[in-house]
Amino acid sequence: MSGGYEGPVRLLGSDGILLTTGTARIEPDSEMGSWKGVVQTLPGTAVAGKALVVEIETPEGRRGRAQLIPQTANGERATSSITGFGPSPF
Predict the structure, then answer these.
(1) CA atoms in the 13 A half-sphere facing the CB of 6
(2) If 0-12 CB within 10 Å is exposed, 13-18 middle and 19+ buried, where does residue 61 land?
(3) How far apart are alpha carbons 46 and 53 in whole angstroms?
(4) Radius of gyration of the chain (CA)
(5) Model confidence pLDDT, tens digit, residues 31-82
(6) pLDDT-based confidence at 2, cuts 50/70/90?
(7) Which residue, among 44, 56, 49, has the nearest Cα to 80 in the 3D structure?
């Protein structure tokens, strides 16, 4: 498992359609053998305030499947926690 990732991401639906973009901070979760973190998007986007399973993609093309769990929506940002499925690709 690598050291994690921090930076821009694309959030894709299960059909590969782009839902929105945002920024993420992802770290390994050695206890679960997976990965976890936080993603921030603009409020009012397709994922803001929703619990969804998405593909998270970095600009380098690395992808991981994760569960989004809405946390807060403050002004210009909506924040969700993310829990990855399987080993970290980041």
Answers:
(1) 3
(2) exposed
(3) 12
(4) 12
(5) 888 999 999 999 888 898 899 999 999 999 999 999 999 998 788 899 999 9
(6) low
(7) 49
